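ok, trying the design again with the full structure, not the truncated one.
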């Protein structure tokens, strides 16, 4: 059986979309862990309350380039 090049599944766009999504999930999970560790450290070492830590994290996110900020929106439920 011969595979036809005109088959849209052979174009690779689905594969590349999946790879991009996997990378995005990896980034999001990594940032969630880092922000959790940061929150714990700021609370235990410096004694900041949860609201102060969340304000600092929000200011940090606001200074990021747009592409990173958009990815960080996925973290909203994790960080709140």
């Amino acid at each position: 059986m011969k595979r036809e090049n005109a088959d849209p599944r052979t174009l690779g766009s689905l594969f590349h979309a999946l790879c991009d999504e996997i990378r995005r999930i990896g980034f999001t999970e990594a940032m969630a862990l880092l922000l959790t560790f940061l929150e714990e450290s700021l609370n235990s070492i410096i004694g900041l309350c949860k609201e102060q830590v969340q304000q600092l994290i929000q200011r940090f996110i606001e200074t990021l380039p747009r592409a990173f900020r958009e990815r960080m929106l996925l973290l909203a439920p994790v960080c709140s």
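Keeping the full-length input from now on. Helices lie at 13-46, 50-63, 66-72, 76-79.
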